Amino acid sequence: MPWPQSPKLGVNIDHVATIRQARRTVEPDPVWAAACAELGGADCITIHLREDRRHIQERDYLILKQTTKVRLNLEMACDDVIVDLACAHPPDQITLVPEKREELTTEGGLEICTNDRVRDVIRRVQDEGIAVSLFLEPSIRQIDRAAELKVDAIELHTGTYADAQPEQAEQELFNLVSAAKHIHECGLIINAGHGLNYQNVGSIASIPAMHELNIGHSIIARSVFVGLEAAVREMKHLIVGGVPGSDT
User: Where would I find the beta strands (DSSP E) of the chain?
Assistant: First the structure.
C-alpha cells in the first residue's frame, strides 16, 4: 500500500439525529446532513443504529441507503434485528462495535477473543457481500483474532489517546502507531476514530497506511458556527495537511 497518502474522511452524522430526537420532531434531518457532508468532501457517511434507537432510526438508514453517493458505513452491535436489516438492505460496510445502554457514546473497543457471536455475525454479513470492520482497542491480541476472522478492516479506538493528558498522549499515540503497523502487516485496512477533533487529528492522519478516519461530534459541534459543509471541508483540509508530502 503506497504512502504517503492522506486518509479518507468518514463523517458520522448521528448527532444531527440526536438533536432531532430531543424534540421528537422531523428536523434537523440526518439525510440532509449527509448531503451537506458530501458537498464538504466526505468520503464516507457513518451512522450508528443503536439498539435503543436514541438517534438514528431505521427510516434514516433506508433513505440514506438510497440517496448517499459516497460509501455508507453502518455501525452496529451484534443485534439480531439490526443484522437482519443490514442483510436485507446491505450498506457498503458494517462496523461492529460494543454497546451499553447506559453509555453516552461508545466507550471502548469490541472484545472479540471470547465472543463467538461476533464470528457468527461476520460470517452472515460477509455472505451478503458486505465488508466488515471491527472497532478495536490497539491490542495485538485483538488484532490477531480479527485477522483470523478474516474481516476486511479494523477501526482503532482513538478515544484513550484523545482523552489523555499531555504527559500520556505520546505513549497512547505510540500504541496506536504500533497497532496500525501490525494491522498493515496482517493485510487488513486501517481505520481509526473516536474523540478526534480539529486539534488532535493531524497525528492520527499521519500514521502510515491509515485509510480512513471516522469523525462525528467535533464536526457537528463546529457546524453550529460555520455550517456543516464548511466544517467538513475544514476537517478534510486538516487530514490532508497532516500527511507529509500528500497532494491528495
Answer: 8-12, 44-48, 71-76, 93-96, 131-136, 153-157, 189-193, 210-215
Q: How far apart are the first and last CA of the chain?
A: 15
Helix, strand, coil content of the chain in percent (nearest 5): 45, 15, 35
Cα separation, 32 vs 47, whole angstroms: 13
Residue 89 and residue 77 in contact, taking contact as beta carbons nearer than 8 Å? no
Domains (ranges, CATH) in the chain?
A: 8-241 (3.20.20.70)
User: Each residue of 138-184: pLDDT tens digit?
Assistant: 999 999 999 999 999 999 999 999 999 999 999 999 999 999 999 99
Active-site residue 194, yes or no?
Answer: yes
Whole-angstrom distance, CA of residue 82 vs CA of residue 23: 24
Please tell me the predicted confidence (pLDDT) of residue 107. Answer: 62
Q: Which of 15, 194, 211, 212 is catalytic?
A: 194
Q: How confident is the model over 79-83, as a mean pLDDT?
A: 96
Torsion sign, CA atoms 23, 25, 26, 27: negative
Counts of helices then strands in the chain (DSSP H, E):
11, 8
C-alpha cell at 141: 491480541
- Active-site residue, 48 included: yes
- pLDDT higher than 90, residue 96: yes
Whether the pTM exceeds 0.90: the reply is yes
> Which one of the listed residues 15, 38, 75, 212 is annotated catalytic?
75
Q: Which grid coordinates belong to 202?
A: 493531524
What is the rounded CA–CA span in Å between residue 96 and residue 93? 10
Q: Cell numbers of 210, please? A: 491509515
Residue 146 corresponds to which cell in the numbers above? 480479527
